[in-house]
Amino acid sequence: MADFKDRVRKILSKKETPPLCFLHSFGCQQNVSDGEKILGLLCEIGYGVTNDISSADLIIYNTCAVRENAELKIYGLVGNLKHLKEQNPDVIIGICGCMAQQEHVVEKIKKTYKQVDLIFGTFALNELPRLLYEVLTERKTAVDITEHNSDISEEIKAVRSSGFKAGVPIMYGCNNFCSYCIVPYVRGRERSRTPEAILKEVKELTDSGCKEIMLLGQNVNSYGKTLEDPVSFSELLRMINDIDGDFKIRFMSPHPKDATNELIDTIIDCDKICKHMHLPLQSGSNRILEAMNRRYTAEKYMEIVNYARSRVHDFSFSTDIIVGFPNETEEDFRETLKIMREVKYDNIFSFIYSKRTGTKAALIEDKTTDEEKGRRMRELLELQREISSEFFKRFEGRTLDVLFESETKNKGVFTGKSDEFIIVEAKADSSVIGRRKKVKITKAFNWALQGEIIN
Ligand code: SAH
Ligand code: SF4
Ligand code: F3S
Predict the structure, then answer these.
(1) Distance from Cα 186 to the centre of ligand 3, integer Å
(2) Which residue out of 177, 179, 181, 292 has the highest number of ligand 2 atoms within 8 Å of its CB and is therefore the one to mutate?
(3) Is the CB of 42 within 6 Å of ligand 3?
(4) Closest residue CA from atom 5 of ligand 1
(5) Count of CB atoms within 10 A of residue 398's CB?
(6) With a threshold of 0.85, does the pTM exceed it?
(7) Judging by DSSP bridges, how do beta strands 92-97 and 276-278 pair with one another?
(8) Residue 438 is part of which domain span?
(9) CA gap 188, 67 in Å, rounded
(10) What is the pLDDT of residues 5-17, one digit of tens each?
(11) Is residue 283 in some structural domain?
Protein backbone atom coordinates (compact mmCIF):
# COMPACT_ATOMS: atom_id res chain seq x y z
CA MET A 1 0.00 0.00 0.00
CA ALA A 2 2.86 2.39 0.93
CA ASP A 3 4.17 2.40 -2.62
CA PHE A 4 0.84 3.49 -4.10
CA LYS A 5 0.35 6.03 -1.32
CA ASP A 6 3.61 7.71 -2.38
CA ARG A 7 2.70 7.60 -6.03
CA VAL A 8 -0.70 9.21 -5.46
CA ARG A 9 0.82 11.79 -3.12
CA LYS A 10 3.28 12.74 -5.85
CA ILE A 11 0.54 13.19 -8.45
CA LEU A 12 -1.66 15.23 -6.11
CA SER A 13 1.22 17.46 -4.95
CA LYS A 14 1.59 18.74 -8.52
CA LYS A 15 -1.80 20.47 -8.28
CA GLU A 16 -1.79 24.16 -7.44
CA THR A 17 -4.01 23.77 -4.38
CA PRO A 18 -4.54 20.55 -2.41
CA PRO A 19 -7.45 18.60 -3.92
CA LEU A 20 -10.54 18.16 -1.77
CA CYS A 21 -12.56 15.04 -1.00
CA PHE A 22 -16.18 14.73 0.07
CA LEU A 23 -17.27 11.51 1.77
CA HIS A 24 -20.67 10.56 3.09
CA SER A 25 -21.39 7.34 4.99
CA PHE A 26 -24.82 5.72 5.12
CA GLY A 27 -26.05 2.87 7.29
CA CYS A 28 -24.79 1.70 10.66
CA GLN A 29 -22.09 3.10 12.90
CA GLN A 30 -19.65 0.46 11.68
CA ASN A 31 -19.94 1.98 8.25
CA VAL A 32 -19.56 5.48 9.66
CA SER A 33 -16.42 4.25 11.39
CA ASP A 34 -15.06 2.84 8.11
CA GLY A 35 -15.82 6.20 6.50
CA GLU A 36 -13.75 7.98 9.16
CA LYS A 37 -10.82 5.66 8.40
CA ILE A 38 -11.17 6.21 4.64
CA LEU A 39 -11.03 9.96 5.23
CA GLY A 40 -7.92 9.41 7.36
CA LEU A 41 -6.31 7.50 4.52
CA LEU A 42 -7.26 10.17 1.96
CA CYS A 43 -5.79 12.89 4.16
CA GLU A 44 -2.56 10.89 4.40
CA ILE A 45 -2.22 10.82 0.64
CA GLY A 46 -2.79 14.51 0.16
CA TYR A 47 -6.51 15.29 0.10
CA GLY A 48 -8.20 17.96 2.18
CA VAL A 49 -11.74 17.36 3.45
CA THR A 50 -14.79 19.36 2.35
CA ASN A 51 -18.48 19.21 3.24
CA ASP A 52 -19.37 20.99 0.02
CA ILE A 53 -19.87 18.38 -2.68
CA SER A 54 -19.69 20.93 -5.53
CA SER A 55 -16.14 21.94 -4.62
CA ALA A 56 -14.86 18.37 -4.25
CA ASP A 57 -12.30 16.75 -6.58
CA LEU A 58 -13.16 13.32 -5.18
CA ILE A 59 -16.66 12.28 -4.09
CA ILE A 60 -17.21 9.01 -2.23
CA TYR A 61 -20.48 7.49 -1.07
CA ASN A 62 -19.90 4.81 1.56
CA THR A 63 -23.08 2.80 1.17
CA CYS A 64 -25.46 0.51 3.08
CA ALA A 65 -27.30 -2.51 1.65
CA VAL A 66 -29.44 -3.56 4.57
CA ARG A 67 -32.79 -2.59 3.01
CA GLU A 68 -33.91 -1.87 -0.52
CA ASN A 69 -34.70 1.79 0.12
CA ALA A 70 -31.11 2.35 1.37
CA GLU A 71 -29.92 1.20 -2.04
CA LEU A 72 -32.52 3.17 -3.99
CA LYS A 73 -31.40 6.33 -2.23
CA ILE A 74 -27.82 5.78 -3.39
CA TYR A 75 -28.85 5.14 -7.00
CA GLY A 76 -30.76 8.42 -6.87
CA LEU A 77 -27.80 10.36 -5.47
CA VAL A 78 -25.33 8.84 -7.92
CA GLY A 79 -27.74 9.58 -10.76
CA ASN A 80 -27.73 13.25 -9.72
CA LEU A 81 -23.94 13.39 -9.99
CA LYS A 82 -24.14 12.93 -13.76
CA HIS A 83 -24.53 16.70 -14.30
CA LEU A 84 -21.64 17.44 -12.00
CA LYS A 85 -19.44 15.10 -13.98
CA GLU A 86 -20.52 16.71 -17.26
CA GLN A 87 -19.57 20.14 -15.93
CA ASN A 88 -16.31 18.90 -14.46
CA PRO A 89 -15.02 15.70 -16.10
CA ASP A 90 -11.99 15.66 -13.77
CA VAL A 91 -14.04 14.99 -10.66
CA ILE A 92 -13.61 11.41 -9.41
CA ILE A 93 -16.76 9.65 -8.22
CA GLY A 94 -16.48 6.60 -5.98
CA ILE A 95 -18.89 4.14 -4.38
CA CYS A 96 -17.79 1.87 -1.56
CA GLY A 97 -19.22 0.00 1.41
CA CYS A 98 -21.76 -2.78 1.74
CA MET A 99 -23.78 -2.08 -1.39
CA ALA A 100 -20.63 -1.99 -3.54
CA GLN A 101 -19.62 -5.40 -2.20
CA GLN A 102 -22.41 -7.06 -4.21
CA GLU A 103 -21.64 -8.22 -7.74
CA HIS A 104 -25.09 -7.41 -9.13
CA VAL A 105 -24.73 -3.84 -7.88
CA VAL A 106 -21.31 -3.44 -9.52
CA GLU A 107 -22.76 -4.68 -12.81
CA LYS A 108 -25.64 -2.22 -12.59
CA ILE A 109 -23.38 0.71 -11.78
CA LYS A 110 -20.96 -0.08 -14.59
CA LYS A 111 -23.83 -0.35 -17.05
CA THR A 112 -26.09 2.52 -16.00
CA TYR A 113 -23.98 5.00 -14.03
CA LYS A 114 -20.97 5.63 -16.25
CA GLN A 115 -20.05 8.72 -14.23
CA VAL A 116 -18.69 6.40 -11.50
CA ASP A 117 -14.88 5.96 -11.61
CA LEU A 118 -14.24 3.92 -8.51
CA ILE A 119 -16.07 0.98 -6.91
CA PHE A 120 -14.62 -0.83 -3.91
CA GLY A 121 -16.11 -3.18 -1.37
CA THR A 122 -15.78 -3.52 2.38
CA PHE A 123 -12.61 -5.65 2.16
CA ALA A 124 -10.68 -3.26 -0.07
CA LEU A 125 -10.16 -0.14 2.04
CA ASN A 126 -6.42 -0.75 2.09
CA GLU A 127 -6.47 -0.96 -1.70
CA LEU A 128 -7.79 2.57 -2.10
CA PRO A 129 -4.40 4.19 -2.91
CA ARG A 130 -3.82 1.65 -5.71
CA LEU A 131 -7.33 2.12 -7.07
CA LEU A 132 -7.00 5.89 -7.00
CA TYR A 133 -3.66 5.65 -8.76
CA GLU A 134 -5.33 3.64 -11.54
CA VAL A 135 -8.10 6.22 -11.92
CA LEU A 136 -5.69 9.16 -11.87
CA THR A 137 -3.23 7.68 -14.38
CA GLU A 138 -5.39 5.57 -16.67
CA ARG A 139 -8.74 7.37 -16.37
CA LYS A 140 -10.50 4.03 -16.26
CA THR A 141 -13.11 2.68 -13.85
CA ALA A 142 -11.26 0.93 -11.04
CA VAL A 143 -13.15 -1.88 -9.31
CA ASP A 144 -12.15 -4.07 -6.37
CA ILE A 145 -14.67 -6.22 -4.54
CA THR A 146 -12.26 -9.08 -3.78
CA GLU A 147 -12.55 -10.51 -0.27
CA HIS A 148 -9.00 -9.51 0.74
CA ASN A 149 -8.28 -10.95 4.15
CA SER A 150 -6.91 -7.76 5.64
CA ASP A 151 -8.90 -5.28 7.65
CA ILE A 152 -8.23 -1.58 7.62
CA SER A 153 -4.73 -0.94 8.86
CA GLU A 154 -4.37 -0.16 12.58
CA GLU A 155 -1.90 2.56 11.58
CA ILE A 156 -4.43 4.79 9.81
CA LYS A 157 -5.70 7.64 11.97
CA ALA A 158 -9.44 8.18 11.57
CA VAL A 159 -10.76 11.65 10.77
CA ARG A 160 -13.65 11.79 13.25
CA SER A 161 -16.73 13.92 12.97
CA SER A 162 -17.00 14.49 16.74
CA GLY A 163 -14.35 15.31 19.32
CA PHE A 164 -16.37 14.09 22.32
CA LYS A 165 -18.10 10.94 21.03
CA ALA A 166 -16.33 8.16 19.19
CA GLY A 167 -17.22 4.81 17.68
CA VAL A 168 -14.52 2.18 18.16
CA PRO A 169 -14.88 -1.06 16.18
CA ILE A 170 -13.98 -4.11 18.25
CA MET A 171 -14.85 -6.68 15.61
CA TYR A 172 -15.76 -6.91 11.97
CA GLY A 173 -18.11 -9.21 10.05
CA CYS A 174 -20.86 -11.54 11.23
CA ASN A 175 -21.29 -15.32 11.43
CA ASN A 176 -24.96 -15.43 12.29
CA PHE A 177 -26.71 -15.53 8.94
CA CYS A 178 -30.09 -14.35 10.16
CA SER A 179 -32.22 -15.45 7.22
CA TYR A 180 -33.28 -11.92 6.19
CA CYS A 181 -29.92 -10.21 6.50
CA ILE A 182 -27.35 -9.26 3.85
CA VAL A 183 -24.63 -8.21 6.32
CA PRO A 184 -22.78 -11.58 6.56
CA TYR A 185 -22.56 -11.64 2.75
CA VAL A 186 -21.14 -8.15 2.41
CA ARG A 187 -18.99 -8.03 5.56
CA GLY A 188 -17.60 -11.56 5.69
CA ARG A 189 -16.85 -13.73 8.71
CA GLU A 190 -16.37 -12.51 12.26
CA ARG A 191 -12.91 -11.29 13.21
CA SER A 192 -11.94 -9.40 16.35
CA ARG A 193 -9.37 -6.68 16.90
CA THR A 194 -6.87 -7.43 19.65
CA PRO A 195 -7.63 -6.02 23.11
CA GLU A 196 -4.28 -4.17 22.94
CA ALA A 197 -5.28 -2.29 19.76
CA ILE A 198 -8.71 -1.44 21.20
CA LEU A 199 -7.35 -0.28 24.57
CA LYS A 200 -4.72 1.86 22.85
CA GLU A 201 -7.36 3.56 20.70
CA VAL A 202 -9.74 4.14 23.63
CA LYS A 203 -6.90 5.56 25.72
CA GLU A 204 -5.83 7.97 22.99
CA LEU A 205 -9.41 9.11 22.53
CA THR A 206 -10.19 9.63 26.20
CA ASP A 207 -6.81 11.31 26.81
CA SER A 208 -7.74 13.83 24.16
CA GLY A 209 -11.08 14.63 25.80
CA CYS A 210 -13.53 12.12 24.32
CA LYS A 211 -16.46 11.65 26.73
CA GLU A 212 -18.24 8.68 25.23
CA ILE A 213 -16.92 5.52 23.61
CA MET A 214 -19.31 3.38 21.58
CA LEU A 215 -17.87 -0.09 21.02
CA LEU A 216 -19.00 -1.35 17.63
CA GLY A 217 -19.64 -4.74 16.07
CA GLN A 218 -22.47 -6.69 14.46
CA ASN A 219 -22.53 -9.05 17.43
CA VAL A 220 -20.32 -7.51 20.10
CA ASN A 221 -20.92 -10.18 22.70
CA SER A 222 -19.33 -12.80 20.50
CA TYR A 223 -16.14 -10.68 20.64
CA GLY A 224 -12.79 -12.38 21.04
CA LYS A 225 -13.61 -15.92 19.98
CA THR A 226 -11.33 -15.77 16.95
CA LEU A 227 -8.32 -14.29 18.76
CA GLU A 228 -5.17 -16.32 19.30
CA ASP A 229 -5.66 -15.79 23.04
CA PRO A 230 -9.45 -15.64 23.34
CA VAL A 231 -10.85 -12.82 25.47
CA SER A 232 -14.57 -12.52 26.23
CA PHE A 233 -16.63 -9.37 25.65
CA SER A 234 -17.18 -9.04 29.41
CA GLU A 235 -13.42 -9.22 29.99
CA LEU A 236 -12.84 -6.56 27.34
CA LEU A 237 -15.48 -4.31 28.94
CA ARG A 238 -13.77 -4.60 32.32
CA MET A 239 -10.39 -3.70 30.79
CA ILE A 240 -11.85 -0.60 29.14
CA ASN A 241 -13.67 0.36 32.34
CA ASP A 242 -10.28 0.27 34.13
CA ILE A 243 -8.83 3.00 31.88
CA ASP A 244 -8.53 6.23 33.88
CA GLY A 245 -10.61 9.16 32.75
CA ASP A 246 -13.97 10.87 32.71
CA PHE A 247 -15.88 8.97 30.03
CA LYS A 248 -18.77 6.57 29.54
CA ILE A 249 -18.94 3.32 27.59
CA ARG A 250 -21.71 2.07 25.32
CA PHE A 251 -21.79 -0.79 22.83
CA MET A 252 -23.80 -1.81 19.80
CA SER A 253 -25.16 -4.37 19.13
CA PRO A 254 -25.23 -7.37 21.41
CA HIS A 255 -27.09 -10.45 20.17
CA PRO A 256 -29.70 -11.92 22.56
CA LYS A 257 -28.50 -15.48 21.86
CA ASP A 258 -25.09 -14.60 23.37
CA ALA A 259 -26.35 -12.34 26.16
CA THR A 260 -25.57 -13.84 29.57
CA ASN A 261 -26.11 -12.89 33.19
CA GLU A 262 -22.33 -12.43 33.34
CA LEU A 263 -22.62 -9.67 30.73
CA ILE A 264 -25.39 -7.95 32.71
CA ASP A 265 -23.34 -8.28 35.91
CA THR A 266 -20.36 -6.70 34.13
CA ILE A 267 -22.45 -3.76 32.91
CA ILE A 268 -23.80 -3.22 36.41
CA ASP A 269 -20.41 -3.60 38.15
CA CYS A 270 -18.55 -1.21 35.85
CA ASP A 271 -19.16 2.42 36.76
CA LYS A 272 -18.35 3.76 33.29
CA ILE A 273 -20.77 1.52 31.39
CA CYS A 274 -24.22 3.03 30.76
CA LYS A 275 -27.07 0.96 32.22
CA HIS A 276 -28.76 0.77 28.87
CA MET A 277 -28.67 -1.91 26.23
CA HIS A 278 -29.75 -1.88 22.61
CA LEU A 279 -30.90 -5.49 22.38
CA PRO A 280 -32.39 -6.30 18.97
CA LEU A 281 -35.59 -8.36 19.35
CA GLN A 282 -36.64 -8.52 15.66
CA SER A 283 -39.83 -10.45 16.53
CA GLY A 284 -41.70 -11.63 19.62
CA SER A 285 -42.99 -14.77 17.91
CA ASN A 286 -40.97 -17.95 18.44
CA ARG A 287 -42.14 -19.28 15.10
CA ILE A 288 -40.81 -16.19 13.29
CA LEU A 289 -37.63 -16.06 15.38
CA GLU A 290 -36.91 -19.60 14.23
CA ALA A 291 -37.61 -18.74 10.59
CA MET A 292 -35.28 -15.75 11.04
CA ASN A 293 -32.56 -18.09 12.40
CA ARG A 294 -32.16 -15.88 15.46
CA ARG A 295 -31.49 -18.83 17.79
CA TYR A 296 -33.29 -17.53 20.89
CA THR A 297 -36.89 -17.59 22.04
CA ALA A 298 -39.08 -14.80 23.35
CA GLU A 299 -38.78 -16.43 26.81
CA LYS A 300 -34.96 -16.40 26.74
CA TYR A 301 -35.08 -12.74 25.64
CA MET A 302 -37.36 -11.85 28.56
CA GLU A 303 -35.05 -13.69 30.99
CA ILE A 304 -32.23 -11.30 30.08
CA VAL A 305 -34.45 -8.24 30.48
CA ASN A 306 -35.90 -9.47 33.77
CA TYR A 307 -32.49 -10.35 35.19
CA ALA A 308 -31.14 -6.88 34.34
CA ARG A 309 -34.17 -5.19 35.91
CA SER A 310 -34.00 -7.41 39.00
CA ARG A 311 -30.56 -5.94 39.60
CA VAL A 312 -31.12 -2.35 38.40
CA HIS A 313 -34.76 -1.35 38.38
CA ASP A 314 -34.29 1.36 35.74
CA PHE A 315 -32.07 -0.62 33.38
CA SER A 316 -33.27 0.66 30.00
CA PHE A 317 -33.59 -1.13 26.68
CA SER A 318 -34.00 -0.11 23.08
CA THR A 319 -34.46 -2.49 20.18
CA ASP A 320 -34.78 -3.27 16.47
CA ILE A 321 -37.98 -4.86 15.16
CA ILE A 322 -38.79 -6.20 11.71
CA VAL A 323 -42.47 -5.99 10.77
CA GLY A 324 -43.84 -8.29 8.08
CA PHE A 325 -41.20 -11.01 7.83
CA PRO A 326 -42.50 -13.37 5.08
CA ASN A 327 -45.78 -14.97 6.16
CA GLU A 328 -45.85 -13.27 9.57
CA THR A 329 -49.42 -13.77 10.81
CA GLU A 330 -51.54 -11.39 12.85
CA GLU A 331 -50.95 -13.72 15.80
CA ASP A 332 -47.14 -13.54 15.34
CA PHE A 333 -47.37 -9.76 15.17
CA ARG A 334 -49.42 -9.67 18.42
CA GLU A 335 -46.57 -11.59 20.13
CA THR A 336 -44.19 -8.77 19.17
CA LEU A 337 -46.57 -6.16 20.62
CA LYS A 338 -46.82 -8.26 23.79
CA ILE A 339 -43.05 -8.16 24.34
CA MET A 340 -43.00 -4.43 23.63
CA ARG A 341 -45.57 -3.96 26.42
CA GLU A 342 -43.57 -6.14 28.79
CA VAL A 343 -40.15 -4.59 28.17
CA LYS A 344 -41.30 -0.98 27.76
CA TYR A 345 -38.48 0.03 25.45
CA ASP A 346 -37.33 3.61 25.67
CA ASN A 347 -36.91 3.56 21.91
CA ILE A 348 -37.45 1.18 19.00
CA PHE A 349 -36.11 1.15 15.45
CA SER A 350 -38.73 -0.65 13.38
CA PHE A 351 -38.40 -1.68 9.76
CA ILE A 352 -40.73 -3.28 7.26
CA TYR A 353 -39.09 -6.45 6.01
CA SER A 354 -37.12 -5.87 2.82
CA LYS A 355 -36.22 -8.75 0.52
CA ARG A 356 -32.45 -9.02 -0.01
CA THR A 357 -31.15 -10.97 -2.99
CA GLY A 358 -28.91 -13.83 -1.89
CA THR A 359 -30.43 -14.35 1.57
CA LYS A 360 -32.45 -17.43 2.60
CA ALA A 361 -35.62 -15.47 3.35
CA ALA A 362 -35.63 -14.05 -0.18
CA LEU A 363 -36.61 -17.54 -1.38
CA ILE A 364 -39.78 -17.70 0.74
CA GLU A 365 -43.04 -17.08 -1.07
CA ASP A 366 -44.63 -14.29 0.96
CA LYS A 367 -48.42 -14.22 1.27
CA THR A 368 -48.70 -11.22 3.61
CA THR A 369 -49.70 -8.11 1.63
CA ASP A 370 -47.85 -4.79 1.70
CA GLU A 371 -51.04 -3.05 2.91
CA GLU A 372 -51.20 -5.42 5.86
CA LYS A 373 -47.53 -4.82 6.67
CA GLY A 374 -48.10 -1.07 6.54
CA ARG A 375 -51.05 -1.35 8.89
CA ARG A 376 -49.02 -3.41 11.37
CA MET A 377 -46.20 -0.90 11.26
CA ARG A 378 -48.59 1.97 12.07
CA GLU A 379 -50.08 0.01 14.97
CA LEU A 380 -46.64 -0.79 16.33
CA LEU A 381 -45.52 2.84 16.17
CA GLU A 382 -48.70 3.97 17.91
CA LEU A 383 -48.13 1.48 20.72
CA GLN A 384 -44.52 2.59 21.09
CA ARG A 385 -45.63 6.23 21.34
CA GLU A 386 -47.89 5.28 24.26
CA ILE A 387 -45.18 3.20 25.92
CA SER A 388 -42.43 5.78 25.68
CA SER A 389 -44.61 8.63 26.89
CA GLU A 390 -45.60 6.53 29.93
CA PHE A 391 -42.00 5.39 30.44
CA PHE A 392 -40.61 8.92 30.13
CA LYS A 393 -43.08 10.29 32.73
CA ARG A 394 -41.19 8.32 35.39
CA PHE A 395 -38.22 10.61 34.93
CA GLU A 396 -40.06 13.83 35.83
CA GLY A 397 -38.45 15.31 38.92
CA ARG A 398 -35.37 13.10 38.66
CA THR A 399 -31.82 14.17 37.85
CA LEU A 400 -30.04 12.56 34.89
CA ASP A 401 -26.50 12.76 33.51
CA VAL A 402 -26.63 14.18 30.00
CA LEU A 403 -23.88 14.52 27.41
CA PHE A 404 -24.84 17.57 25.32
CA GLU A 405 -24.30 17.30 21.59
CA SER A 406 -25.79 20.24 19.69
CA GLU A 407 -28.15 23.21 19.63
CA THR A 408 -31.76 22.52 18.57
CA LYS A 409 -33.71 24.59 16.05
CA ASN A 410 -34.82 26.65 19.05
CA LYS A 411 -31.99 29.06 19.73
CA GLY A 412 -30.56 28.66 23.22
CA VAL A 413 -32.00 25.13 23.65
CA PHE A 414 -29.45 22.32 23.55
CA THR A 415 -29.93 18.60 23.14
CA GLY A 416 -28.02 15.55 24.27
CA LYS A 417 -28.45 11.97 25.44
CA SER A 418 -28.81 10.73 28.99
CA ASP A 419 -26.96 7.61 30.12
CA GLU A 420 -30.27 5.78 29.50
CA PHE A 421 -29.91 6.92 25.86
CA ILE A 422 -32.91 9.23 26.07
CA ILE A 423 -32.92 12.59 24.28
CA VAL A 424 -32.86 15.43 26.81
CA GLU A 425 -33.21 19.13 26.01
CA ALA A 426 -32.33 22.09 28.22
CA LYS A 427 -31.67 25.83 27.99
CA ALA A 428 -27.96 26.51 27.93
CA ASP A 429 -25.18 28.16 25.93
CA SER A 430 -22.84 26.57 23.43
CA SER A 431 -20.20 25.83 26.10
CA VAL A 432 -22.26 22.74 27.10
CA ILE A 433 -21.55 21.00 23.81
CA GLY A 434 -19.33 17.99 24.50
CA ARG A 435 -19.88 18.21 28.27
CA ARG A 436 -21.74 15.89 30.63
CA LYS A 437 -24.11 17.84 32.89
CA LYS A 438 -26.62 17.01 35.61
CA VAL A 439 -30.11 17.85 34.40
CA LYS A 440 -33.24 17.96 36.54
CA ILE A 441 -36.12 16.70 34.40
CA THR A 442 -39.11 19.03 34.41
CA LYS A 443 -41.26 17.64 31.61
CA ALA A 444 -41.60 14.43 29.60
CA PHE A 445 -42.72 14.30 25.99
CA ASN A 446 -43.28 11.04 24.18
CA TRP A 447 -39.99 11.30 22.32
CA ALA A 448 -37.74 13.25 24.70
CA LEU A 449 -37.31 14.86 28.11
CA GLN A 450 -36.96 18.52 28.99
CA GLY A 451 -35.06 19.77 31.99
CA GLU A 452 -32.88 22.34 33.72
CA ILE A 453 -29.14 22.05 34.06
CA ILE A 454 -28.22 22.04 37.73
CA ASN A 455 -24.43 21.71 37.36
N1 SAH B 1 -26.14 -6.91 13.88
C2 SAH B 1 -27.24 -6.23 14.36
C3 SAH B 1 -28.07 -5.48 13.34
C4 SAH B 1 -27.56 -5.15 11.99
S5 SAH B 1 -28.69 -4.55 10.80
C6 SAH B 1 -28.15 -7.26 15.02
O7 SAH B 1 -28.06 -8.42 14.84
O8 SAH B 1 -29.00 -6.81 15.72
C9 SAH B 1 -29.70 -3.42 11.69
C10 SAH B 1 -31.14 -3.77 11.71
O11 SAH B 1 -31.68 -3.73 10.41
C12 SAH B 1 -31.46 -5.18 12.19
O13 SAH B 1 -31.46 -5.29 13.56
C14 SAH B 1 -32.82 -5.44 11.59
O15 SAH B 1 -33.84 -5.03 12.46
C16 SAH B 1 -32.82 -4.56 10.35
N17 SAH B 1 -32.74 -5.38 9.14
C18 SAH B 1 -31.73 -6.18 8.74
N19 SAH B 1 -32.06 -6.79 7.58
C20 SAH B 1 -33.30 -6.36 7.25
C21 SAH B 1 -34.19 -6.64 6.17
N22 SAH B 1 -33.86 -7.48 5.21
N23 SAH B 1 -35.40 -6.01 6.15
C24 SAH B 1 -35.75 -5.15 7.14
N25 SAH B 1 -34.96 -4.86 8.18
C26 SAH B 1 -33.74 -5.46 8.24
FE1 SF4 C 1 -27.51 -9.45 10.33
FE2 SF4 C 1 -28.13 -11.21 12.18
FE3 SF4 C 1 -25.58 -10.63 11.74
FE4 SF4 C 1 -27.16 -8.84 12.88
S5 SF4 C 1 -26.58 -10.82 13.72
S6 SF4 C 1 -25.72 -8.49 11.22
S7 SF4 C 1 -29.11 -9.18 11.89
S8 SF4 C 1 -26.97 -11.65 10.33
FE1 F3S D 1 -25.80 -1.32 6.27
FE2 F3S D 1 -23.52 -2.55 5.97
FE3 F3S D 1 -24.12 -1.52 8.27
S4 F3S D 1 -25.44 -3.21 5.14
S5 F3S D 1 -26.33 -1.63 8.35
S6 F3S D 1 -23.82 -0.39 6.41
S7 F3S D 1 -22.95 -3.36 7.94
Answers:
(1) 8
(2) 181
(3) no
(4) 66
(5) 13
(6) yes
(7) unpaired
(8) 396-453
(9) 18
(10) 999 999 999 988 8
(11) yes
